[in-house]
Q: What sequence folds into this?
């Protein structure tokens, strides 16, 4: 029996655990512990000095997983240097004396079916391809449903009448999602909760503030790494629009990219790597629609986003939209972020009153 | 008569000879920005974003210097060389950043072999933009490429010969736009020459040999220029006394690739990361102690 683990990101550990435990019924999937400041400390200690922050976060989680007995670690890749993390992380862990294997599913932002098949065989040679396709399909749908509901929550959580009603319902839903039997069951559960969410009472004033969040994918999707930015915005009764989620990255991206390129062709001509060009187009979209402000978040040293930042701030300048840039590091203080957020929020309020 | 401005940074160090030969042959006037000085660097720091890597800031400084001195500025974009040979994403964005930050005419081409965009197509496009005849461009391109091939062969030969010299040999691992830049790496090189060290440059080897060898250090690496560097390490590991890594702060591929190399090699190395505040005095102390250490090892 092999023990498999993977660094978690947001709530997506639920579909990922679901998929892995169905592909490998005889192996054990270990749930990574929630990221804490200790995780970051561990990760930072063994990481190169100026690597981007997701490296430090995932390395810290990996060490904690290994402490729990994991033998195989799974890492996803991205279009930037994220795809190269796995090799250095494996070497670092080996130098620390752990006996483990890091498997990297995506490199250079491309999903190659043949390669993935080979890698999945490395975990357990007796895995069933048919099952993988079937459960892969269910997992994709689960991710899609989760993202749709998350989008609804983001728009409404700031205006809930009973505090915590959205969060508790979401937790309930996630627990039920992790015990899904088949696709039909999943669909039924999704419909049930969609209705329940729509029934939750909200009070949405007409002159509410609307903010769009753009930026680097890991920092956006892992709430600990952005210091629960969405939560603090919701406390201020703000409607949130966020574009990046796993469903977007896996399925919609190639199609959307072409649209984005056409839409913002005066600002960029070539693909800028990772999500940078998408964010430029999204910035233009937020400026042209009735959003009150934009928040751009990224981990420090994220190269593609740094390249996009001068262009994004130029767009915001042209449209006279307030924009706030956050660069999160392992040493960022929460108070500093809150002070800046409050000032930004006050400024938006004053603009609105005018 | 059109004048083309060439910023002396980033791409210049890879394509300078091809460009100058190509323009010479077409009788196009061009100016190259001067070697980096404090003024250019300060301009770059002013226009750029504070988190950009030092080399990109430097590049923007050079563009800023050229902006009112010529009709066109040559800013290419390099994305990949096929088969897992990507470049750093900064090479992808430079064109769009320059276009958005400066109000100048740009000459640009795209190298993206996965999509069939080659250097040849790029140079033909530039020739056409400058109103040259097809036959002229063809001749100029051929001229530039043959000369470049000869030069590369010569460089590779020189590096090979250097490996046989009986002096303390140090391999400099870094990107050419850092090593040869007057403000970033030149002082280090000068110091080493003064101390009678034989310097071998990691970018002056035949990539056909080194890129393959880089797999010994890193299997999954997909950055072309880092492959050159790591391959050079694997190639001359047994013939050299020490390695000096030079990178600009915060270089994305170097942060991972160099770290991996440092964990795998077993010869003395020194890692120098240069940012806009580095003073040479600090570097000198480190270089001095590194050379002392190498000397001590040699005397054993």
A:
């Amino acid at each position: 029996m092999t023990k498999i683990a993977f660094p978690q990101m947001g709530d997506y550990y639920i579909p990922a655990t679901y998929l892995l435990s169905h592909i490998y019924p005889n192996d054990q999937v270990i749930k990574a512990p929630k990221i804490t400041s200790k995780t970051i400390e561990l990760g930072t200690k063994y990481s190169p000095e100026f690597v981007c922050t997701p490296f430090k976060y995932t390395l810290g989680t990996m060490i904690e997983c290994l402490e729990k007995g994991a033998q195989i670690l799974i890492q996803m890749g991205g279009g930037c240097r994220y795809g190269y993390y796995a090799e250095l992380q494996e070497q670092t862990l080996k130098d620390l004396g752990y006996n483990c294997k890091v498997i990297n599913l995506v490199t250079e932002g491309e999903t190659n079916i043949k390669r993935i098949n080979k890698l999945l065989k490395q975990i357990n040679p007796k895995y069933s391809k048919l099952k993988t396709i079937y459960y892969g399909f269910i997992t994709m749908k689960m991710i899609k449903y989760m993202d749709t509901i998350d989008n609804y929550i983001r728009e409404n959580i700031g205006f809930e009448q009973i505090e915590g009603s959205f969060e508790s319902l979401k937790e309930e839903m996630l627990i039920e999602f992790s015990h899904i039997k088949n696709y039909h069951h999943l669909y039924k559960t999704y419909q049930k909760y969609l209705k329940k969410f729509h029934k939750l009472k909200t009070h949405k004033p007409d002159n509410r503030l609307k903010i769009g969040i753009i930026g680097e994918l890991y920092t956006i999707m892992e709430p600990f790494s952005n210091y629960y930015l969405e939560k603090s915005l919701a406390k201020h009764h703000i409607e949130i629009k966020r574009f990046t989620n796993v469903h977007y990255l896996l399925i919609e991206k190639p199609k959307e990219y072409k649209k984005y390129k056409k839409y913002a062709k005066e600002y960029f001509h070539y693909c800028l790597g990772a999500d940078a060009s998408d964010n430029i187009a999204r910035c233009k979209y937020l400026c042209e629609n009735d959003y009150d402000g934009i928040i751009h978040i990224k981990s420090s040293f994220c190269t593609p986003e740094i390249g996009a930042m001068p262009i994004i701030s130029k767009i915001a300048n042209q449209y006279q939209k307030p924009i706030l840039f956050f660069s999160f590091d392992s040493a960022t203080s929460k108070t500093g972020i809150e002070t800046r957020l409050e000032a930004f929020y006050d400024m938006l309020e004053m603009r609105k009153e005018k | 008569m059109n004048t083309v401005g060439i910023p002396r940074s980033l791409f210049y160090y890879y394509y300078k000879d091809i460009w100058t030969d190509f323009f010479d042959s077409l009788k196009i006037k061009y100016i190259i920005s001067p070697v980096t000085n404090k003024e250019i660097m300060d301009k770059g720091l002013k226009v750029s974003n504070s988190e950009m890597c030092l080399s990109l800031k430097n590049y923007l400084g050079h563009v800023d210097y050229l902006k009112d001195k010529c009709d066109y500025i040559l800013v290419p974009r390099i994305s990949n060389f096929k088969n897992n040979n990507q470049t750093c994403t900064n090479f992808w964005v430079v064109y769009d950043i320059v276009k958005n930050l400066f109000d100048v005419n740009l000459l640009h081409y795209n190298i993206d072999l996965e999509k069939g965009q080659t250097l040849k197509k790029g140079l033909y496009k530039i020739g056409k933009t400058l109103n040259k005849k097809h036959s002229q461009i063809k001749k100029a391109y051929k001229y530039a490429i043959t000369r470049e091939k000869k030069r590369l062969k010569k460089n590779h030969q020189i590096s090979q010969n250097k490996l046989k010299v009986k002096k303390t040999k140090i391999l400099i691992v870094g990107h050419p736009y850092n090593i040869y830049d007057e403000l970033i790496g030149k002082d280090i090189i000068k110091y080493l020459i003064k101390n009678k060290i034989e310097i071998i440059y990691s970018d002056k080897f035949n990539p056909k040999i080194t890129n393959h060898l880089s797999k010994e250090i890193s299997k999954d690496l997909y950055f072309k220029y880092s492959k050159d560097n790591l391959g050079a390490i694997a190639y001359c590991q047994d013939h050299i006394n020490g390695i000096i890594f030079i990178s600009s702060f915060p270089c994305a591929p170097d942060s991972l690739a160099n770290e991996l190399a440092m964990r795998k090699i077993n010869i003395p190395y020194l890692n120098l990361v240069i940012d806009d505040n580095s003073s040479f005095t600090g570097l000198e102390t480190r270089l001095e102690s590194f050379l002392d250490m190498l000397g001590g090892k040699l005397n054993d």
